[in-house]
Structures
1.
Amino acid sequence: MTNTAAIPSLDKAQAFTGRTHKLFIGGQWVEPMEEESFSTENPATGKKLAIVSKATAKDVDRAVAAARAAMNSSEWSEMKPSVRAKLMFRLADLLEANIDEFAALESLDNGKPVRDARYFDLPHAIETIRYNAGWATKLNGETIALSGPGTWHAYTLREPVGVVAQIVPWNAPIAMAAAKIAPALAAGCAIILKPAEETPLTALRLTHLIEEVGFPAGAFNLLTGFGDTAGAALTAHPDVDKVTFTGSTEVGRLILKAAAGNFKRVTLELGGKTPVIVMPDANVAQAIEGAARSIFTNTGQVCNAGSRLFVHQSHFDEVVEGVSKIAKAIKIGSGLDADTQMGPVISRTQRDRIRGYVSSGVQQGAMLYAGGEELDREGYFVSPTILTDTDAEMAVRREEIFGPVLCAMSFGEDELEQIATNANASEYGLGAVIWTNNLSAAHLLARKLKAGTVRVNGGGLDPALPFGGFKQSGWGRENGREGIEAYTETKAVAVAL
Ligand code: NAI
Ligand code: MG
């Protein structure tokens, strides 16, 4: 039996799942045009969780028109930056006031341990909104000195890019929604947010808070629905100016093609195959703990999960044994059980996909060092798994598994160039982690690694730190100054004096 007695506000979250969920367009809750709905499931049980409206292309048209109307309205387009900031700070405060309910809802919807949602995802979402609210009043152009003949006053303006479609995945629903909407609202864009069909609930609940805060009608719109219908219609729509997307590399490619019609601006956060490198001088105990956390957090459903572990041969046995010990001790269960350390994966499809990778690796000669057994229980559970004896050609080494599956390799060389070459042997380039106490090696390796984020000896996400991928891990950056500037167009103005 799951012990849920200690989960604060679980009753509120459960009551919310049972409500009728409409679409939010132009400041109103409306029925979908085709009057269709779909149900979501709780991944810890496989049972039905909520019934949600299913937006189709007609709803996309309505939502885009509402967003365009907001961009054309003086209420939104001429709102003072400090007022935009104030609305956003109020939204962050409201989210914080309801943090327990959101954490319980996220756990029901996504399966993650409620503690992780409460102490990581939600604080991160709140901080992201506050961080970007601060930018609203600091988005400035520059004055430019021109060298041509004549006397000039030249400057740049930063204007909102316009109507933005934001498509987010299911692995960190509220944190991803915040990472998308916060910079866009701070920059003065009008948004259509489409959460993943697997996890629409915290975005729906957040929309009620946005309504309560009182953003102008059409500045924020929410469409729940599927990728190949609502998502595809958004990315192809001729009146959408920008698409921002987090999800699979495969869909990222479709979005690029769809965006070509009207040259939409595109920001993509795609998959990863992050290397974790343990150098000979690393603090081994910390590296073991860090390597385990990097691959097992959120049941491995993290774009930046450290899925390839490269350990210097002097520590290989100790590190792999240490990570394996942690893996075997992880308490797997419902996210609503206070003792749970690892929840289910999101769906049957993802569970079968992960199992498929593990068995293909084993068939090709990899050794199952830990995990890999099928868990006989309701819901979609996968055990933390470690593979050794893989080679660089195997799918488990090349492709994003998006589950708690680690490939562990040893290296003998001390040449940084060779270590970096091995770590860089991937089509992805999202993150890299180095464990070392050698200052020079840390910085030199950081330069050689082809990754959007390099972390040394730990560290987490921060809304101030640009995040994004090299190579097939994406286009552009979220977070930081670059993240908000990506929601603007630069206009150059030159005045002959
Ligand atoms: P997906 O990329 O299909 O779904 C992510 C979002 O994109 C969802 O909101 C979905 O509705 C939307 N979408 C799907 N097809 C679309 C289309 N044609 N046009 C516009 N939007 C569309 O990811 P999926 O199928 O859920 O997961 C498959 C794999 O993708 C995972 O195993 C993982 O490897 C990767 N993935 C990576 C994520 C990341 O954080 N980088 C997040 C989710 C998945
Ligand atoms: Mg898909």
Note: Residues 227, 248, 251 surround magnesium ion (ligand 2) (CB under 6 Å).
2.
Amino acid sequence: MKTCVAIIGGGPAGLLLSQILHIAGIDTVVLERRSRDHVEGRIRAGVLENGTQSLLRRASVGERMDREGLIHGGFSIAHRGGMHRIDLMTLTGRNVMVYGQTEVTRDLYAARDTMGGVVLHDVEDVAVHDLRSDKPHITFNHAGEAHRLDCDFIAGCDGFHGPSRQSIPRESRREFERVYPFGWLGVLSETAPVDDELVYAGHENGFALCSMRNPRLSRYYIQCRSDENIADWSDDRFWTVLRERLPVDLAARLETGPSIEKSVAPLRSYVCETMRYGRLFLAGDAAHIVPPTGAKGLNLAASDIHYLSEALIQWYGSGNSSGIDGYADRALSRVWKTERFSWWMTSLLHSFPKNSPFEQRMQTAELDYLTESQAAMTALAENYVGLPY
Ligand code: RFL
Ligand code: PHB
């Protein structure tokens, strides 16, 4: 088998890259370890930055998003019993869109189908070879047979646990990591969202987030222990804890019902330097992880794909390698700024078990400052809607 760009991983990063390159006339093959049903069913991110929305439109997958996505011109921070609105539109002139990662992935698969894109599911034992040559290749098993895929470039879009990053020799990469001493317990329920916009609540018992997917589908999270056993969390227990972390007025409006999905996610910040090794390029969660507090994981995967697709299109169009040579530095510059924002928002709103009384007062003072200062709110809003590409 032969292609121009072999893409490992059929999550949003890999599918988006395949879609953009296909539109530019560049052949790709996507190799995905899981079944299509599995990939399409995963419940993950919910908020799209302005830049991600534009990129999806340019990739011809924006139609349903524009029809069904909810434009949000602001969100609220709940703190000390009050609600403080961050008016994104007034502060930055830009908005965000609430449209689930599940929907983005479905739209990308539908577009790949329509355009005849090659996506192989249930592939096993993917391994990359000859990364430092002009002709790298991949070996893998599919439907009981061994295969070899020859290509010009390999895009490692295989998430945090995929093999791409691990194939860069230890001495050629540097890893930076912070694991937070808590996780998020998330619930999806067929109830009306408690508010029109998202609410991020800082509370001494722990953080809570009220989000949504559509007017009849709510997504709520509460800070929990990272080793939390999901079996210990009945729906009633979840709703009780959520309610006590929200301002009284908001809690009184909370519509509860059976959960249709419940899961625990650990919180981690992680960056791999470099994002390029020979003809292998990492993108999305394969290269970095952010805690979900700023809703940046999916958006960061999209901005990587913007830089990578631009670089590859330039190379195939003119043979100019400046884009691919500069990819890692360009992407990492935005990655680090977004890591900083996600770390800051996580530090601001969560209850840290080991924080001293002094550190607790610092956190409260920062939240007070944020909700009183136009300058501080603007800095938050500018990062939340997404830094420019
Ligand atoms: P993905 O979505 O993990 O896709 C990677 C794909 O690679 C496949 N793969 C392999 N394929 C072939 N061979 C192998 N050996 C392979 N190993 C892995 C996987 O099956 C998968 O299909 O990474 P991508 O495309 O970079 O996209 C990134 C986003 O998915 C991610 O940043 C966000 O979903 C992060 N994230 C969240 N972000 C938010 O902004 N808000 C959220 O609420 C939010 N919730 C979450 C999340 C991530 C979670 N994970 C990773 C456990 C909740 C969870 C549970
Ligand atoms: C979500 O709706 O899943 C969501 C929204 C905002 C976040 C994280 C997750 O910051």
Note: The mean pLDDT is 97.
